[in-house]
Amino acid sequence: MLRYTVRRLGQLLIVTVVLSVLLFGWLRALPGGPVSALLGERATEESRARLVQQLGLDQPLYVQYWKFVQRAITGDFGVSTGVQPGTPAMEVFLQRMPATLELSVLALLLAVAVGIPLGYFAARRQGGWLDNLSITWSLIGVAVPVFFLAFLLKYVFAIEFGVLPASGRQAAGIDATHATGFFVLDGVLTTEWDAAWNALIHLLLPAIALSTIPFAVIFRLTRASVLDVVEEDYVRTARSKGLGAMVVRGRHILRNAMLPVVTTIGLQTGALLSGAVLTEQVFNIPGIGQALSLGFQRQDYAVLQVVILATAMVYVLVNLLVDLAYAAIDPRLRTR
Amino acid sequence: MLGTQRKERIDGLAESGGDTTAGVSLAASAWRRLRRSPTFLVGAGIICAFVLLALVSPLLAQHDPALRLLEEQVSRADNEIPAPQPGFPLGGDQYGRPLLSRVLLGSQQTLLVALLATVIGLGGGLTLGILAGAFGGWVDTLVMRVVDVMLSVPSLLLAVSIGALFQQQSQFTVIIAVATVQIPIFGRLLRGTMLAQRASDHVLAARALGVRQRSIVFRHMLPNALGPVIVQATLMLAVAIIDAAALSFLGLGAADTSTPEWGQMLGSAQNFFDTHPHLAFWPAGCIIVVALGFTLVGESMRDALDPKKRR
Amino acid sequence: MGAAAGPGFRLSRVGRRLVTVGLTAVLATSLSACVQSQRGEDNGQTMVFGAPGAPALFDPFYASDGETFRVTRQMMEGLVGFESGGVEVEPELATDWNSSDDGTKWTFQLREGVKFHDGTDFNAEAVCANFERWYNQTGTGQSSALSYYWIETFGGFAGDDEPSLFSSCEAPDPTTAVINLTRATSKFPAALGLDSFSMQSPTAMKKYEADKVEAKGSGFEYSEYARKHPTGTGPFEFDSYDQNNQSVELRRNDDYWGDKAKLDRLIFKVISDESVRKQELLSGGIDGYDFPNPADLDSLRQQDFNVQVREPFNVLYLGMSQKKNPALRKLKVRKALAYAVNRENLVNANLPDGAKVANLFYPSSVDGYADDVAKYSYDPEKAKRLLNEAGHSDLTIEFWWPTQVTRPYMPDPRGIFNSLAGDMRKAGINVKPVSKPWNGGYISDVNKGDAEVFLLGWTGDYNSPDNFIGTFFGSTENQFYTKPAPWGEKLANRLDAADKEPDPTKRERMYTEINRDLKSKYLPAVPLSHSPPAIVTAPHVKGLVTSPLTAEEFASVSIEK
Predict the structure, then answer these.
(1) What residues in A contact C50, CB-CB < 8 Å?
(2) Disulfide engineering: C476 pairs with which of A189, B112, B216, C483, CB 3.0-4.6 Å?
């Protein structure tokens, strides 16, 4: 098990290094570069050349990369030029991560809270109206472009009915202490209930928009695995032993059906991040999704480097943890 | 983005196709069950209608979608967009171009983007998958590391990264960006099915009989891997259409909008959502229905191929 | 399956705990509804303004972007300012000034009893300390990405090869500051009203190391002063910048020397998407925002929002580079393009309320404006004729336009391109469209002169012809690449001479003549339009005076609900 873990960690290291090289080369291959974004239409050829030299962007790529690595080891990932100019890129990432995490966690909670019960009941009455309805819903949810759904939700609930805020993380006038950067949590910890509530209702619409795809996945998987489990021998045994319906459902069916579902939830990170890029754009949430799209528009090398590397690492790490958990259960996997 | 569950789902699908003991009868029984599945029939109906529309739309559209025929009725200052009028049942878009003709002809480009992106993605994935699956060993390890790196970046992010590389954005760059996302998915899928095949009896038998490596790969392993690939490709057509729309929304769509495409129409309608929602609703509606069609067919084929479901 | 039941059991225990937490959360949120009304009421008047971008820093000297200035303008003042609602220079921290006859010695009488936010005095020594700081920038501080306006206005720094306009600063007594220049310039004193040349507290700058700016990786790291302690003399002072929530908060300066601000708190909330800004206003999240989508103005007005359209102070032009396409070196071909484009239609269909067709490269409020210039009204037939005469009846041009950008002078590049390209095709010109992302190659290629025909524009910084045409044509290796033209060098020299002319009347005449020739003899580009950016506020916001320079000051604003 230890050898397996070490080997997988080694692979993670290789993936990270390869990715960082690719990322570095890719960024420098982008047309334009941060100089255009810094100078705008006021740039002249001369000032541009001077700035390129000042920022060291005229040096050979491998020299630039080596310098990047040297600085990165000391925790210095460069300074943002377009997203939050002047702020260290790592700081930009750390400041924005909570917004995205908060949003993703709520979206995931919504998906789980709706998807699992619905999947269970749909499977118990396979072919019934609830089953058909929720299957249709999950299929349509996948076919609707996330940003279009986000627009629709915002239009209906924020503009037409005005019941929920249209954008942002928290109303600007509110006095709130931001200790952790997770606004809802901050409000609860400092007992500024209005701040927490305000942050929570700001999260609601974007979280709903973001939850559609995880919902569809979780719902379908729950349904499928409940269907599988119901036919397993131990359920039949339990039934024939005369165990109560409640006990069979709770202890045997649901519990065993949940195993694959729980692992899938871990694998939703990537999908959530993709969705967050779009949702944060529509709802103006200063998270890492927005940092990415702004970073692209303004060619912010430092921020793109940190954000993409870090998200990829998180994604790979989550996958690694899932694999390790599997390997612990099933020794056969360790040799693969 | 449908690229969820990623590896898990891909590998699951790969294993389902690896079940070759059934041989031809697998396809036959799958088809038998498909024919009776309402999900499949609805989806197939949608796809047929969509392809038909793409073929006959030049006959249906009465105007050139690139011409600003109603330009005099456009005013930025007063936020005026041509209303429905004789000859123009849906009015014009924000530049005074005929909206109905654009929606109709948009089907062509949308189909083209989806097909080309998926074909290119499949081609790339096929190359990687065959390399890895057929040779195994260090080739396999190397290819799979590349695939893992590609899969480690969230799919939309990868598409945006590729799309941003091009100096001039066009329909072609959108296709390439969307296709790149699909390459590792197809690659992993094919590698999985090939691995399952490599260990199977009939390949072992062929090898024992001294059949050449290339012939084993192309005669025996590849045909048996086709089922899962077709399923995945169908699902990917839906993803491609939605991804193309997302790229347009993020400002990475085709710069030249004279040839209409639904995703690009939806992306460029975002500023008019509050005041002229119909500009977004038409292309969005079309995208949703078509994406649903491909998803329905893909999912029902997946179910039909699933050996567990055959009990 | 016993193994599988194990973790399942643990899961359900976790589940039970989750339920408890969930219940607590529900209780907490329902409680909060009651608490909500008790807090945040006696905060006085607060205005939340939706800004399209984040300020880069709060030290205006190192900035050149409007979003930074939008914030610093409320906190800091220059020696001179601009009239409320106009572009004329008026006294601010200096009450009066005069210059020597040769235009090199400028004497400023300073306002008395003015204090910086940190309590230190504003006096002639502080003025000189600021000038010395600007002039003595070293290393990174000299980068054009930082000291842009200094380089544009004053040229070089101390000990530089580049000649500098600035020579020295003297403080003969606390209320008199003398600025010595190396030559006369049309930029003075208006340029001193630029936000970059705001007066900042020397004490605070020293304490928080204002000049400590470092290039790190591909960006700049600013000083603690620029990030957390900007100190000026203005009606508002810095409170905080919440990067998590992307909002900047200012509070009233109760010791302000003039009319004190009516607002207690002024908050700038960064909302980059224009449709999101609108939705926030509609749903009451903000009290106003800048740069609304032109398409939204009408519906906003109908819902009683106060839409103010500024006087335009910008220009959009159709540039023509003489570098790559030899046909464009012929005046007749350039004239043909000018006749081919329908600017009336462009303004009507594609530009917002209040936009005008441009006759010159700057609006009529700037000195040296002339109305009696060649107009080139839309005439496709004449365009065809001119092309024939020039021997280019089958002219092919690359027409460049930018993606991923909107500018106040160019709210919809694609629409503008479509409209103009259509016009050109009607005149028999073959148009090859080239589009590039604004930051992804467009700006850099256009600046190299590589774009044959292109869309670009300019927003004026202050009332001076030099700020417009001096920037465009002051050198021959520019976007238009006027180097091969027989008049390219001459035009640059004429502009230089006009800038150096100390006599205002004479100077104005020189600029008028240049303007006439620009339209008839030279025509390096075709001025298309001036389009005014609008600003929107909720009905309860009173007293906002718009500025053509988009330099609104919020001190006069109050909230009356």
Answers:
(1) none
(2) C483
